[in-house]
């Protein structure tokens, strides 16, 4: 297990770290906007949770859009757990935005000690920049994925456009809301789910699959940079007939707006595995490797797994998942990223510049 010898952090180091975060904020501004806010609110690229200057250890978690509420609750619980265990206080700075944009912000200088992103490939980008050691995916259980989700449809009550499966999204007059795969991890999962469905429907005929995908994305009326922005477009701005959504976002919306929305489970979706990792270069420099490890490892504890379930993610602990089984459609057929050869191959084929997504979207 990767651990470096660490010195205790002092007040000056905390102040230096906050200054570095402010510098990284300029990078986030270039990627789409940055403003101080609570961890559960605001737009992409925002940060929150500055230390109070009392000598507490400070770490920064750079995460993706829909985890704001989850990590607001988790950080509070972990801080209490850590102080009870070690006698030390900890402050957690939180940043959220489209997963791909967040990964690029770390590569370009954002001082993340840990990243909790929407897909493994975004962490691989940081690894390739030399900031994360190889083998990170094996450092924590279940491929360093402490919770999972899947992709569902969110429609307005009554389901006026009679949307039940992926082929309904290509019908004339159906307005689809889905974020941009170039910046959003959720959007990559959305794309692959639809592709797998079409692959089944057309027996692997690539021309027919691409035609299906071209029609689907031709119906996308707004393509936001991140999943939370897409939810805002659909729910608050009233655009589109269907939101292709993280399951956790859809569940939260139905709960927040009772009687106004319905969740539709397509016949085929995908096992979405958000990934976590220590940013070794930054954590080593900041003297936070050990606490960063503890922070991510505690995500697998029963207490944390229940927080995960409460915030509508699927716990990786099968026993805890059963406690929340009434929230999720556990009978959905789910493909996995392995059906696409893993994330490195999938990203190169579908999402790199000039890849399949660019081909079908330009049509």
Under the CATH scheme, which class of the largest domain? Alpha Beta
| CA gyration radius, whole angstroms | 20 Å
The ordered H/E elements are HEEHEHEHHEEEHHEHEHEEEHHHEHEHH
Distance between the ends: 48 Å
What is the number of helical segments per DSSP (H or I, 4+ residues)? Answer: 15
Which of globular, elongated, flat, extended, rod-shaped describes the shape?
Answer: globular
Number of strands: 14
Descriptive overview:
- The chain has 363 residues and is α/β, with parallel strands linked by helices.
- The chain has two domains: 11-148 and 273-327, D-Maltodextrin-Binding Protein, domain 2; 151-271 and 332-362, D-Maltodextrin-Binding Protein, domain 2, CATH 3.40.190.10.
- Helices cover 44% and strands 15% of the residues.
- The chain contains 15 helices and 14 strands.
- The chain has helices at residues 11-31, 68-86, 99-107, 120-128, 141-144, 185-201, 206-218, 227-235, 247-256, 280-286, 289-297, 302-310, 318-323, 343-351, 356-362; strands spanning 46-48, 57-63, 90-96, 114-117, 147-148, 151-156, 176-177, 220-222, 242-246, 261-264, 268-270, 275-278, 314-315, 333-335.
- It has a five-stranded mixed beta sheet, sandwiched between helices.
- Helix 1 (11-31) packs across helix 3, helix 2 packs antiparallel against helix 12 and helix 3 packs parallel to helix 4.
